[in-house]
Specification:
Pfam families: RsmJ (PF04378). InterPro entries: RlmJ, SAM-dependent_MTases_sf. One of its GO terms (molecular function) is 23S rRNA (adenine(2030)-N(6))-methyltransferase activity. This is Protein containing DUF519. This protein is of the alpha/beta class. The protein contains 9 helices and 6 strands; from the N terminus they run H-H-H-E-E-H-H-H-E-H-E-H-E-H-E. The longest helix has 17 residues. Helix 3 packs parallel to helix 7. Helix content is 42%, strand content 12%. The radius of gyration is 18 Å and the shape is globular.
Length: 212
């Protein structure tokens, strides 16, 4: 595994028994890992400042499907309690994508899932939301990003903040979220890590953060 310059910690540095048959206690593991988190965040930010990544070329691929189904499962778990929560994204993207821009990758992701019968509730919910978006916007090639999916799942007591560093993408995100029609959502342009720091701890006492 290649280390990020300046980083002193990586997954392989953990004791072997941390992930073995007799794992170490979570508290002990956190004592080992957490002190390095600020350094890792600085490293990620240094690299992301030089990245020229646009998610539209990868929307709907296998990794996207896995991420979005997992997100819906996590949101579903939070919604088992009546108490509201904060949902926060540090790198939100544009909200809705045209799969014509990622046809090669999406064909092996969402393209293989559409039309199948799914047993797991998060998968079924994922496909329902996909069809809702396409029906509302009249586009068979449209694909929802994580902000659109999360915003569609919020209840009256929940809140969401979406941060995007690229102004053009942030404007597209605002347009996509306006169709969801809720005042509980805020989209901003800026540094997602800095804004996350100011948002925690949330007033709701519960939060789910997506850093992607």
């Amino acid at each position: 595994m290649q280390r990020c310059p300046g980083a002193r910690w990586q997954l392989s540095d953990l004791p072997r028994r941390a992930m073995g048959a007799n794992p170490v206690p979570l508290r002990a593991l956190c004592r080992r890992v957490l002190p390095s988190v600020p350094e890792q965040v600085r490293c990620i930010r240094a690299y992301s400042g030089r990245m020229k990544y646009r998610h539209l070329h990868h929307a709907g691929n296998f990794a996207d499907v896995h991420k979005h189904v997992t997100l819906l499962a996590a949101l579903g778990a939070l919604k088992r309690k009546e108490k509201g929560f904060l949902y926060f994204e540090t790198h939100a993207g544009r909200g809705v994508y045209d799969l014509a821009d990622s046809a090669a990758e999406s064909r092996h992701g969402i393209g293989r899932l559409v039309g199948t019968e799914c047993v797991a509730a998060p998968l079924r919910r994922y496909l329902v939301l996909l069809e809702q978006l396409r029906a509302a916007r009249g586009g068979a090639r449209l694909y929802p990003g994580s902000p659109w999916l999360a915003a569609s799942e919020l209840r009256a007591q929940d809140r969401a903040v979406f941060i995007e560093s690229v102004p053009e993408e942030a404007r597209a995100l605002e347009r996509a979220l306006s169709a969801v029609g809720t005042a509980r959502i805020r989209a901003e342009v800026g540094d997602g890590f800095e804004k996350l720091r100011s948002a925690l701890p949330p007033s709701q006492g519960r939060a789910l953060t997506l850093i992607d």
